[in-house]
Task: inverse folding
């Protein structure tokens, strides 16, 4: 329990520092939206221009980098297996996986349990819960947290997005 609390605190501080740094350095563009996901058991797909940082306990992360030559690439730690599908798509499997993609255009899909992530940018996000008793929750653009349902839900990520 103490280890989990420590990891959560460190993750929160890193996320805060990353978002604060992005805003300070001008990577937060007008109209960017924000997304926070807490303890999700789901398939979450984000296609956006901006950034995402996250963690999951066991599952698969698929990353599509639309411009692999832009010197912006994902950072993934904890993956036990990696497969480069092609020059644009890479898949990661593992336990206790952490990831981030900051800057540029990307599409990620996380299929896992205990997903915690945050994102800023413009694009779309789709949630499909796994049908557990509690599939987790999400907050879009600072709105109150809502439950993730096992029916696919798609929302725009950006200043005009309201779930």
Result:
């Amino acid at each position: 329990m103490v280890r989990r609390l420590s990891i959560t605190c460190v993750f929160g501080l890193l996320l805060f520092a990353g978002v604060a740094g992005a805003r300070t350095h001008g990577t937060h563009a007008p109209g960017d939206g924000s997304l926070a996901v807490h303890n999700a058991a789901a398939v979450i797909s984000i296609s956006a221009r901006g950034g995402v940082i996250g963690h999951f306990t066991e599952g698969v992360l698929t990353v599509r980098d639309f411009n692999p030559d832009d010197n912006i690439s994902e950072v993934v730690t904890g993956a036990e297996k990696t497969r480069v599908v092609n020059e644009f798509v890479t898949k990661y499997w593992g336990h206790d996986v952490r990831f981030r993609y900051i800057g540029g255009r990307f599409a990620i899909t996380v299929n896992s349990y205990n997903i915690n992530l945050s994102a800023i940018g413009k694009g779309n996000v789709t949630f499909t819960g796994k049908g557990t008793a509690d599939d987790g929750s999400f907050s879009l653009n600072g709105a109150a947290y809502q439950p993730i349902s096992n029916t696919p839900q798609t929302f725009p990520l950006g200043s005009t997005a309201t779930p």
The beta strands are 33-65, 75-84, 89-129, 137-140, 146-147, 153-157.
